[in-house]
Design goal:
Bound molecules: adenosine-5'-triphosphate, magnesium ion
Structural class: alpha/beta
CATH topology of the largest domain: Heat Shock Protein 90
Radius of gyration: 36 Å
Order of helices and strands: EHEHEHEHEHHEHEEHEEHEE
Number of helices: 9
Number of domains: 3
Low-confidence stretches: 387-391
Length: 391
């Protein structure tokens, strides 16, 4: 493996010894020489050798000092150093290793032993560098992938928003159209007077305000929560349903929320992100119900049932539907990225992001199972026992 592609820096104050090492090593490596610690430091900086053979006993700067300085400089710290010395005292050897050397060779030495040791350390060093690069590359790759997923899921959420706004606007827009037509008719019939005009403006403004509020609501929905908060879980569900109930209604899906009537249930976490998860789950139920209808599995109304309960130290939310359940093919990898059974109709990141939010950000858990007639997703969230946890 080792060949002249490796550069070895030899540091020794005795010219005769440098000459000896040259003879032994010149066929195998590119060699550079330094007669003192100071020159060694300069050369190490400029040529970046793959390994340094370092004499211990030298005038001015000795080998230990040279090694310390090499290790203190980030540009040379990684270069493996093998001490070469006539010192045989075990304390000396120990301090050589403490100073950051990877090996210690005693003078006089056998040529093939020196070569074998240099080779071994070059290989180790190379392997380590290779592994480090791989790790850095892998981390970068994952970071980019994660960013892309987040971007994609944002785009998906935008798409949902736009179609929900379109739904919410349909009715007020129609009404506004009728009001406009009416003013034309009224004018022809000579009915437009101050009273009519006032009524017309106020009705029109009401409709416009309603549409404007819808946009505000959706904008708020997309905003990430800035910090962990204590919030009413049931209220978060209602906030989602207020925005998306029209879409569900047009899909003939009924949603029921079961929650204790006596007191609110609070959880700790990011409220808007939870709403994002709720929307993902409800959309999945909608898709499952529609696909079950297409396949003739269900004819009746679709339903989604949400049960919110408090257990010892957590809030447990069950979301079940009658969409025929999760395919066996995907049930084990449901929460992985890009797992979808919807072909072009899905990207397979809804549940991946949902898990990242619930488990990665909120210290909770999300699981899935099939129940009678459909799927059930369970979310567990930390309750409000440890306020100290809050960020
Ligand atoms: N309520 C459900 N009933 C049946 N299958 C489900 C249900 N929820 C999820 N699945 C299955 O899990 C798969 C992955 O869901 P996920 O939300 O991650 O992606 P998707 O809905 O396919 O695409 P995306 O959400 O990115 O648009 C779905 O394709 C579907 O097969
Ligand atoms: Mg989905």
């Amino acid at each position: 493996m080792a060949g002249p592609q490796w550069t070895v820096l030899i540091v020794d104050d005795e010219p005769g010894f440098r000459q000896l090492l040259r003879q032994i090593l010149q066929d195998k490596y590119n060699l550079s020489f330094a007669g003192s610690g100071a020159v060694a430091l300069e050369l190490a900086q400029s040529i970046r050798p793959d390994l340094i053979l370092l004499d211990i006993v030298m005038p001015e700067m000795d080998g230990y000092e040279t090694c310390n300085r090499l290790k203190a400089d980030p540009t040379t710290a990684d270069i493996p150093v093998i001490f070469i010395s006539a010192l045989s005292d075990s304390a000396e050897i120990v301090s050589a290793f403490k100073g950051g050397a990877v090996d210690y060779v005693r003078k006089p030495f056998q040529n093939d032993v020196v070569i074998a040791r240099i080779d071994t350390h070059l290989k180790l060093y190379n392997l380590q560098r290779h592994l480090e690069n791989r790790v850095v590359e892998e981390i970068e790759r994952r970071r980019l992938e994660e960013q892309m997923l987040i971007q994609q899921s944002k785009m998906a959420a935008m798409g949902e928003m736009i179609s929900a706004i379109a739904h919410q606007w349909k009715q007020p827009l129609n009404t506004l159209g009728l009001v406009m037509q009416d003013v034309e008719d009224a004018f022809k019939a000579g009915e437009v007077d101050a009273g009519y005009l006032k009524e017309f403006v106020s009705h029109g403004m009401d409709l416009i305000n309603l549409m404007s509020h819808t946009v505000d609501d959706f904008q708020n929905f997309l905003k990430p929560s800035k910090h962990k908060d204590i919030f009413d879980v049931t209220e978060a569900f209602y906030e989602v349903l207020r925005l998306f109930s029209n879409i569900l209604k047009s899909n003939a899906i009924t949603i029921a929320i079961n929650t204790p009537k006596t007191h609110p249930i609070y959880a700790t976490g990011y409220r808007n992100e939870l709403k994002q998860v709720i929307l993902n789950l409800i959309n999945n139920s909608r898709d499952a119900i529609n696909s079950a209808r297409k396949r003739g599995v269900i004819k009746k109304n679709g339903y989604v049932t949400i049960d919110i309960e408090e257990a010892e130290d957590k809030v447990v939310i069950n979301i079940s539907d009658n969409g025929g359940g999760i395919d066996n093919d995907v049930i084990d990898k449901l929460f992985d990225a890009y797992v979808t059974t919807k072909g072009e109709g899905g990207t397979g990141i809804g549940l991946y992001m949902s898990r990242a939010i619930i488990e990665g950000k909120m210290n909770g858990r999300i699981t899935a199972s099939n129940v009678e007639g459909g799927a059930r997703f369970t979310i567990e969230l930390p309750t409000v026992t440890q306020k100290g946890d809050m960020i």
